[in-house]
Amino acid sequence: MRAAAPPTPGSVLRGAITSKRGTVGVAALLVAGHQGGEALVPVVIGRTIDEAVSTGSAMALLRWIAILAVLFAAFSSCYRFGARFAERAAETAAHDLRVRVSERVLDSRGGASKGRLAGELANIATSDAKRVGSVNLILPFGLAGLAGLLVSAISLLRMSVPLGLLVLLGTPPLLVLAHFIGRPLERRSGVEQERAAYASGVAADLVNGLRVLKGIGAEPRAVARYRRTSRDSLKATLRAARAKSWHDGAILALTGMFIALVALVGGRLAASGDISVGDLVAAVGLAQFLLTPFQIFGRVNAGVAQARASAARVADVLAAPPAVPGGDGKLPSEVPGALRISGLCHENLRDLTLEVAPGELLGVVAPDPAAARDLLAVLGREFDPASGAVTLDGTALSTVDPDEVRRAVLVAAHDADLFEGSLIDNVRAGGPAVERAMAAANADEVAATLPDGQDTVLTERGRSLSGGQRQRVALARALAADPPVLLVHDPTTAVDAVTEAKIAAEIAAVRRGRTTIVVTTSPALLAVTDRVVVLDGGTVSAHGRHPDLVRDNAFYRTAVLS
Amino acid sequence: MTELLPTATWARTRAVLGELVRPRRWLALSAFVFVVAATGIGLLTAPLLGHIVDLVAQRRLAEAVTLPVLLIALVALGQGVATAIGTSLVARLGEGMLAELREKFVERALGLPLEQVEKAGSGDLTTRVTNDVSEIADGVRDALPELGRSVLTIVLTLGGLAVLDWRFLIAALLAAPIQLGTVRWYIRRAVPLYAKQRVAVGEQQQQLLDTVGGAPTVRAFRLAGEHVGRVRARSGAAVDLALRGIRLVTRFFGRLNLAELIGLGAVLATGFWLVRDGSATIGTATAAALYFHSLFNPINAALALVDDAQSANASLSRLIGVSDLPPVREPAHPAVPVDSSVKTAGLGHSYVDGHEVLHGVDLEVAPGERVALVGASGAGKTTLAKLIAGIHHPSAGSITLGGVDVAELGPSGVRETVSLISQEVHVFAGPLAEDLRLAKADATEPELHLALDRVGASDWVRALPDGLSTVVGDGGHRLTVTQSQQLALARLVLTDPPIAILDEATAEAGSAGSKVLEKAADAALSGRTGLVVAHRLTQAAGADRVVVLDAGRVVETGTHAELVAAGGQYATLWAAWSDHR
C-alpha cells in the first residue's frame, strides 16, 4: 500500500482504475454491448419497414419482431449488469481513498492537516474521493459511447457511403458548434451558481447564529439582509436561465436542421434508387441517435477533468510531508518520568531550560498562550524544536517514534475534542482508570445531570454539553489514561470556583507519584502544585512555590491574580 | 423528546403553491402556451419524414423531397425559438416563486421561538434551510421543467399517433400498464432506500468531520486505529446502500426496456397490418414507428424524474410547514417601558414537565444597577437569564421590564429593551462591517469603529487585511474565541439596549482571554442595567449586588461585602476562590 514514491495526481487516478481493473473491464464490455444494441434499433426498424411493412409478408414481420426482442433482451441485460459493475468499481475505489486519506490525516507523524480546515479535509475524503472513484464509471460509459458510434458508422456506411460520411462527418462539427455556443454560457452560469450557493450559505449561517441574533433582537435586520441577498441571487439566476434557454433552443434548431439535411440527401438517394426506404428510415433514426455518443464524450471530458482536479487534492493530502520524522529510539517499559528541557528554541520559546523530577506536580504559568501551545506541541512531539533538546529519562524525544512518545507523555490540550459516542465511552477511550478519573474530574456529576447519565450520547464533538461540562469530561479522559507523564492545559477555565478547587485537589491526589505538568493561570490549580515556573518572553523568568511567588513576584501576581 | 418542526399537508402545500402562482398567472399562462407550442411544432418532423418516405415509395422525382425538407428545417427553427422563450418564461415563474418562498421561510424561521427550535434539534432547521431549499431549487431548475416537457411530449406524441391512425395509439398504449406498474414498484422501494442512503452519507460526513476535526486529540490519545475503523464502517455502509441503489435503478430500466419493446413491436405490427389493409401508407407507418422510437427518451426521463419530483415535493412541504406558521403576535397597543428596571415575581420554569429548574424567583434590579448571578453549574443561572431576555417563556410567575409586564411590551418591545450575550460565539459570514450592522442596520463606519474601540477590539480590527471589509466567519478570516466574543460585545454596544444580560460571556476564552473580555464587558455594560452570570468571582466582586442561586432558588442577595460578612454560601465560594490569592 505504501509505495516508495510519493503519490501524484496521476498515480492516484491510475491507482483508482488499476486497483479495480477487472471490474472496470467487465463493466466496459457490457455497457459497450448496451450502446451498440441501442444503435441497432433504428436499423431494425428500417429493415422491418423494408422487408415486412413494404412487402406485406407476415413471416418477415414475425422474424423481425423476434430479432427486435432478442436485441432488446441482450442490450437490456448488458446495461443491467454493466452499470452495476461500473458502480461497484467507482464506489469501492472511492471508499479505499477515503480510508487512505483518513489514515494519512491521523498518522502519528502529523503534517497532513497543516493549512487545511477540518471541513475542507472532510470534503476531500468524501466529495473528492467520490469524484476520483467515478472515473471507473466514466471510463466504461466512454467506451460504450465509442461502441455506439462504431456500430452506427458501420451500419450507415454499409447502406451508402455518401450518406454514412455525411452523418459521421457532420455530427462532430455540429457538436463543436454547440460547444462553442455553450462555452461562454457555462462559464457565466458557473458564476451565477456560486451566487445562488452564496444566498443559501447566508441563510444557513443566519440560522446557525440564531441564538446570537435572538440575544440582541436582530431578527428583523437579518431578514432584511437575507431578502437582499435572495433578490440579488434571483436576478443572477434569471440571467443565467435566460442565456441557457436560448442555448438549448439553438441546439434544438441545429439538430433539427441536421436531420433535415440527412433527409434531403437520403431522400434523393432513395428516390434515385441508391438506397431503400428502410435505409432512409434507419439513417434518420441514426442521425438522431448519434447525438448520444457524442454527448457522452463531452461528459467524459468534463468528468475526467473533474476527477483529475480531485485527484490532485487527494494526492496533496497523501503526499503531505510529515511534521516530524519517525524514530527507532526506545523508552523503557516502565517510564519513571524525568523530563529535561535544555536550551529549547521554537517559535515563541527562547532558550528554555527546565527540569521536572519523576513524580513532580509542576505548574507552568505562561501568560502568552502561544508560548504555552508551543511547549505542549514540543512535549507531545507534534513538532521537533528548532534547537535545543527534550529528553525523557535520558532518551531524546526526537529519536523516538511519536506514537511511542505519546504512550509515555499525554498532552491534554485546552481545546481537545470529544467524539460521538456515550460520555463513558469518551472517558474509556483515554484508558482503564475510568471510575477514579470520573470522580476526580467531577465528570460523574456531569453524568448525573444528563438524561441518560453516563450513557448519554454526545453529539457534534461534545458541543451538546456546556463548556464546563465538556472540560470535565475531557479531563476525566486524560486522567483515565493514567500516563507516566501528563500535561494538562487550562483544564477548568469554564468550571465554577467551588468545583475547580475540588478538581484541583483531586488532580494532585490522583497523580501522586506520577509526573504531571499543569499549564494554567488559575490560582486554585497552582496552589496544589509542588512547584511553579513562570514563562516570560518564552523563557523561565521565575520559579518557586505558589504562595512564595504570590508574595514576592509582581509579574506573577498580575498574571495569576487579576 | 424531540418534536420536529411542522410539515405541511399535501392539500396545504398545493394551496400555498396556488397562492404563489396567482399573482403570476399571466406569466404562468404564457409559459404554458410557449412550451406547448414548442412541443407541438416539434411533432411535425415525424409526419414530414413519413411524407418523404411516401414520396420515395411513390417513385416521385428526387426534387419533390425539397419542399418537405425545407419544412423540416423551418419546424426546427420554430421549435428552437419557442423552446427558448418557453423555458426562459418557465424559469422566471419557478425562480420567482422559489425566491418568494425561501424569503418567507427564512423570515418565519428566524422568528421562531427558540424553545421550538431547540425541541426540534438544531439540525432540523439547518437541514430545511440548506438541503430542502437546494432540493427544491434543483427541482425548479432541472427536474420539473424536464418532467413537464417530457410529459407534454408524451401526451402530444400520443395525440400525434392518434392523428396518424387511432389504432397506432392503442398499440402504443400497450406499453403504459407496464410503465405505470414499474414506476409504482420503483417508488415504493426507492423512497425508503434513498432516505436511508441520505442518512448514511450524512453519518459518513459527520464521522469524517469528527475524526478529521479532532485529529490532534486522536493522535494525542493514540486512537487512530479505532477512528480509521469508524470511518471504514461508516463509508462501507454508505457504499453498500449506493450499490443497492444501482441494483434497483438497473432493474427499473430493465422493466422499462420491456415496455419499449412491447410498444415498438405493437406499433410496427399495427403499421404492417394497416399498410396491408390499405388504410395507411408506408410513410404513415414509418412516422408512427419514428414517433414511438422518439418517445423512449422522454418516457425514461419522466419516469426517472418522478422520484426527484417526489423528493422536491417532500422538501416543499417541509418549507411550507415552517413558513406557514402564524407570525408571533404583537399586542395591538404595545406599552413603552418607563425606566430600565427588571423585576421578576414568583418565576418558575421547567424544560421537561415535572422537572422544575427554577422555583419562585423574586428579583428586583434598579435602573442602572449591576447585579451578578452566582451559583454552581446547574443552579439555574442561564435559565433565569434566558427567561428575562424573553428567549424562553416562564412556566410560572411574571417578568416586568422597565415597569411594564412583558406581555404588554410584546415580542418586539422586549427585543428593543433587553439584549442577551451568551457564551455561544457565532461570527456571521461576510464582511466584518456587515456582521456589526446586524446590530444596527444604518451604523456609519465611524460608529462601528467607536463601538469596537469601546470593547478594546479596534487594534486587531485595524490590523485585519481589509479592516472592516475583511470577510470573516465560515470560509473567511478566522477570529479567535476572544475576538469573536469582543465582536458580540460590540454588537451589544451598537444595539444599545437599556438592559443587558451577559451569560458567562467570558467563559470560553481561556484564562488570558477572559481578562480582556471582562474589561470589554465592563465597558459595554456602562450606562445600562446589567445582569451578569459570573463564574469568575472577580466579576461578582465588582458588581453592585450579588444574587446567589442554588438548585433553582435565590438563597442569598446583597453586596459582595455583606455576603462575605454573612458567612453563607457566597462566603464559602469566595473563600475557595480567594484562598489562593
Automatic annotation (TrEMBL), chain A:
Keywords, comma-separated and alphabetical: ATP-binding, Membrane, Nucleotide-binding, Transmembrane, Transmembrane helix
Annotated ranges, domain ABC transporter: 312-562
Domain ABC transmembrane type-1: start-end pairs: 26-306
Membrane topology: Multi-pass membrane protein
Compartments, record wording: Cell membrane
GO molecular function term, any single one: ATP binding
SUPFAM superfamilies in alphabetical order: ABC transporter transmembrane region, P-loop containing nucleoside triphosphate hydrolases
TM region positions: 61-79, 137-157, 163-181, 249-271, 277-298
InterPro entries in the cross-refs: ABC1_TM_dom, ABC1_TM_sf, ABC_transporter-like_ATP-bd, ABC_transporter-like_CS, P-loop_NTPase, Type_1_exporter
CDD domains listed in its UniProt record: ABC_6TM_exporters
Database matches in Pfam families: ABC_membrane, ABC_tran
PROSITE patterns given in the database record: ABC_TM1F, ABC_TRANSPORTER_1, ABC_TRANSPORTER_2
Membrane keyword on record: yes
Name under which the protein is recorded: ABC transporter ATP-binding protein
Organism per entry: Amycolatopsis minnesotensis
Automatic annotation (TrEMBL), chain B:
Keywords assigned by UniProt, alphabetized: ATP-binding, Membrane, Nucleotide-binding, Transmembrane, Transmembrane helix
InterPro entries per UniProt: AAA+_ATPase (IPR003593), ABC1_TM_dom (IPR011527), ABC1_TM_sf (IPR036640), ABC_transporter-like_ATP-bd (IPR003439), P-loop_NTPase (IPR027417), Type_1_exporter (IPR039421)
Membrane topology: Multi-pass membrane protein
Occurrences of domain ABC transporter (ranges): 342-576
Main location: membrane
Pfam families xrefs: ABC_membrane, ABC_tran
Domain of life the protein comes from: Bacteria
Intracellular or extracellular location(s): Cell membrane
Segment forming the signal sequence: none
Boundaries of every ABC transmembrane type-1 domain copy: 31-311
Ranges that cross the membrane: 26-53, 65-91, 166-187, 256-275
Molecular-function GO terms, alphabetical: ATP binding
Name of this protein: ABC transporter ATP-binding protein
Native species: Amycolatopsis minnesotensis
